[in-house]
Amino acid sequence: MKDYIKSPMEIEKKSFDIIGKEMGAHNFSDTELKIVKRVIHTTADFEYKDLIYIRERSIEKAIELLKSGVTIYTDTNMAASGINKNAIKRLNCSVECFVSREDVFKEAKEKGITRSMAAVEKACSEGVKFFVFGNAPTALFKLKELTLKGQASPEFIIGAPIGFVGAAESKIEIEKLNTPMITVRGRKGGSGVAAAIVNALMYIILR
Amino acid sequence: MKDYIKSPMEIEKKSFDIIGKEMGAHNFSDTELKIVKRVIHTTADFEYKDLIYIRERSIEKAIELLKSGVTIYTDTNMAASGINKNAIKRLNCSVECFVSREDVFKEAKEKGITRSMAAVEKACSEGVKFFVFGNAPTALFKLKELTLKGQASPEFIIGAPIGFVGAAESKIEIEKLNTPMITVRGRKGGSGVAAAIVNALMYIILR
């Protein structure tokens, strides 16, 4: 067996160099590129280059929120666990995934809706501003509904649900809001992708 | 906005139907297909159809271990959090991710190796049999080394590290062992994919 690179930072740097070489032509700014490359790093899938939509001034808004020690809502425990806890701590931010909460579980069962939908309702009622969706199209639909009704005030959204039923549509719908956002269009996305976007944003501040 | 499907089980069933229709010709058995479809369900990426390698009698071995209440080793907290905890509980299994352990952290720092490598050393010394890798090529290299030295006795391995440095090679190397295994060849894979394979195996028993 050949010897192999063992330093995590060295591995990451080499990976980003390879991605830069292989991804070819693009129109991303240097800051946007950091997000796109990190998603490709997380998925080994260059198609994300064509799927990531970064709305104007959204990175700036996300950074402003992260610097203010915002609470980050995630739709799954998996997305929450993919977010770098050390970076969160350094920024005095916090990550909350409501789907595991007892009250959310009960409400979902009573109403016959997904736990993700009940969770987003709860988060909105508690004034969450920074939303991260990697899994649940239904949660994204719900956030749009609540925002249009004036019952939610999102200031930044990562919309990256994955899947075959409702995922692509959920991203089309959420983009109709004027909120600053980053989305992954089409069927692709996922908890890992959503977490990678959060990490990329934090590293823009911290590194 | 159109009405949308809200029942999680209904969403999953419809997704699997779409995947079945779109994935085209294949040589998978019915049981293998359950694993492949779940990975595509998790990634929205049909390329996995051509990347997943299921060694003969490996599903049977995995099922035997799961039925015996095995401890499942994962290389990341993210993979651990993607594994269905309810199914784990029903099977009397447990999931352990060693990378967060204090002793593992110390050892990695002292030796200048990745925490993933130190974690796999610890797991092997504690007799773990069922290994799940979604992230760390270095951990997979290390497991192969330890197995060849007689210091590890894996009975089933999921080898799905993702990435640009070492990931593809790590899967080529691990396949040289005779151990029952499921791997994702090439650069792709990831924590979500690794967890999806574990879930698919558990659902074969439980559903």
UniProtKB/TrEMBL annotation, chains A, B:
User: Is the Iron keyword given for this protein?
Assistant: no
- Record protein name field: Precorrin-8X methylmutase
Q: Which UniProt keywords apply?
A: Cobalamin biosynthesis, Isomerase, Membrane, Transmembrane, Transmembrane helix
Q: Which Pfam families match?
A: CbiC (PF02570)
> In Gene Ontology terms, what is a biological process of this protein?
cobalamin biosynthetic process
Q: Membrane-spanning regions, if any?
A: 189-206
Entry GO MF terms: precorrin-8X methylmutase activity
